[in-house]
Amino acid sequence: MTTQRKISGSPTLRKSIEQIHTENASHGLTRSLNAVQLTMLGVGSTIGAGIYVMTGTAAANYAGPSILLSFLVAGLACLFTALSYSELASAMPVSGSSYSYAYVSLGERWAWWTGWLLLLEYGISCAGVAAGFSGYAVSLLHDFGIIIPDALTHTTIHSTLTPSGMVADSGWRLDAVGAGVILFVTFFLVRGIQESARINTAVVFLKVGVLLIFVLVGIRAIHPEYWHPFIPPSEGAFRYGIGGIFRAASLVFFAYVGFEAVSTASAEAINPRKDVPTGIVLSLVICTLVYICVAAVLIGVVPWRTLDVADPLALAVDAMGMPSLTIIVKLGAVIGLCSVLFGLLYAQSRIFFTISRDGLIPQIFSQLHPRFNTPWLGAILLGLFVALATATLPIDIIGDLVSIGTASAFGVVSFTVIWDRNTRPDGERPFKVPLGGVTIGGVWIGIVPALGILFSVIMAAPLFIDVLRDFTTGNRTPLILLVLYFTTGALIYRFYGRQNSRLAASNPMIGK
After folding, report:
1. Is residue 492 one of the residues assigned to a domain?
2. Dist CA 86 CA 104 (whole Å)
3. Is 266 among the domain residues?
4. Do 320 and 218 touch, CB atoms closer than 8 A?
5. CA-CA distances (angstroms) from residue 142 to 134, 135, 145, 149, 510?
6. Nearest C-alpha neighbor of 96 from the set 77, 74, 122
7. What is the DSSP string of 197-250?
8. pTM of full prediction above 0.85
9. Is 399:254 a contact under the CB 8 Å cutoff?
10. Cα-only R_g, the chain
11. What does the angle CA 177 – CA 179 – CA 185 come to, to the nearest 5 degrees?
12. Which residues constitute the domain of residue 376?
């Protein structure tokens, strides 16, 4: 059943819950993931460049020791959204994540834009993770006497934070190491989720174990004076002080990208109504605890102003005077970041798979491999696109763009819970967000989803302010990329999506 509603004189196409379930029953993917594998997918997709790279950048440039508070703020924002994701995943156990949820609550146009934002969250974030991989891999190879030229390890566009804002320059260089690992992971993605999930679970235990070793060894090397002042005095422009805590939170928000990748695996989960909510919440809790412990040791071992480097954990281990541990940490980072790339690329390929089945992007993204039952051609195209972004864009710009996309998608998810509760008050929901809600004018507003929307705004606001300020000070690259990205999305939907929408084609009341 298709639903529609008049808004400002134009009909808005929405999918019904029944239609979502019908489509989900015929997706052709294999249900093979249990609760443990889903949790490991979430942890594997989350613990990566955020803790290995962005923690140092956020501490050095924005928060100092108060980066611990930034992680708590970002984690709290994610918790509210995780609970909303869990309710929707139990009520609508389908692939597509917030894209599918938006199709039910807000309609096709908003669903398209949500899916386009998810490309920022998952697809483009892979470029940031690959950049982190490149930094640690090059450093590790250097320890073994293998030197890779700078022209093959640095991105085409390079950015530097100055007192007046971010400054970007370009040159004849490509991050071939980062681009190469994207293509490597894409190969395993094409092979299939079940085989790759087993490898991913093993890798997750390995990289979490390495981080725990870093924490246990680093505790003995902590200099308490490095934590003071805990909140450095503000220098303006979100540098330190209270404003710096929230700016850093919007940056380390990047570190939490991935936990909701569990929701994209609903179509391949054995028991999605139960296991998907469990995987979402457990993976978020595990990651938050790991982040805070690692960050506390990191800023206690080396002065936080020195952490704006590609491999801050390696810098900290060097300060401990333990060369053997340096190799272990770098190797753990290299292997662990591969699992992050797998989880993020997997999530994005499944989102594209769902959007393609709806006709909004070409059908090549939903064609399954005859042997592996994976959307292989779409995964290959996605891998090539992300490899290009990795080779050309710096992690600073990528991190901000990803956080903008993530915050926007999180807001949509939280709103969808409110919409679903009001339009289907008696619908089946094995998991419900806690704390209840209030009814205003006959409309139920949940406390948790409302807080999720509020924190999404808090996360996104400093990013937009910085992008606009950088534009006025001469660094036009972030705003230009953002405008180009949204313009591309608008053109694709206008000239392809609207013309090929299966939902519109099935409803004669909707004009092309």
Report:
1. no
2. 16
3. yes
4. yes
5. 12, 11, 5, 11, 60
6. 122
7. HHHHHHHHHHHHHHHHHHHHHHGGG--GGGG-SSSPPP-STT-SHHHHHHHHHH
8. no
9. yes
10. 22
11. 100
12. 2-425+453-485
Pull the structure tokens for residue 18: 């029944």
**Class of residue 349 by CB neighbours under 10 A (exposed 0-12, middle 13-18, buried 19+):** buried
Provide the 8-state DSSP code for 321: T
- The answer to whether 438 touches 130, Cβ cutoff 8 Å, is no
**Inside any domain, residue 331:** yes
If you average pLDDT over residues 337-358, what whole number do you get? 81
State which amino acid sits at residue 15: K
In contact, 456 and 411? CB cutoff 8 Å: yes
Is the CA virtual torsion 235, 239, 242, 243 positive or negative?
Answer: positive
Long-range contacts of 285-288 (CB under 8 A, 24+ apart): 286/39, 286/43, 286/208, 287/42, 287/43, 287/46, 287/47, 287/255, 287/256, 287/259, 288/71, 288/75, 288/78
Question: How many domains is the chain partitioned into structurally?
Answer: 1
In this predicted structure, the answer to whether residue 2 has a pLDDT above a threshold of 80 is: no
Amino acid at 384: L
Q: Which amino acid is at 417?
A: V
β-pair type (157-162, 165-170):
antiparallel
The tens digit of pLDDT for each residue in 443-481 reads 899 999 999 999 888 878 877 787 787 777 777 777 888
| Amino acid sitting at position 379 | A
Of 305, 253, 390, 262, nearest in space to 59 by CA: 305
The pLDDT tens digits of the residues spanning 355-385 come to 888 889 888 888 887 777 778 788 888 888 8
Q: What is the CATH number of the domain that holds 196?
A: 1.20.1740.10
DSSP state of 441: T
Q: Is residue 395 in a domain? A: yes
225 vs 399, residue with greater confidence = 225
The letter for the amino acid at 2 is: T
**Residue 1 reports pLDDT greater than 70:** no
**Residue keyed to tokens 């039952």:** 373
Closest by Cα among 86, 43, 113 to 278 = 86
CA atoms within 13 A on the CB side of 139: 25
Which run of H or of E encompasses 12?
strand 10-15
Beta strands in 125-215 (DSSP E): 157-162, 165-170
- DSSP state for residue 269 in the 8-state scheme: B
What residues does 165 pair with on adjacent strands? 162
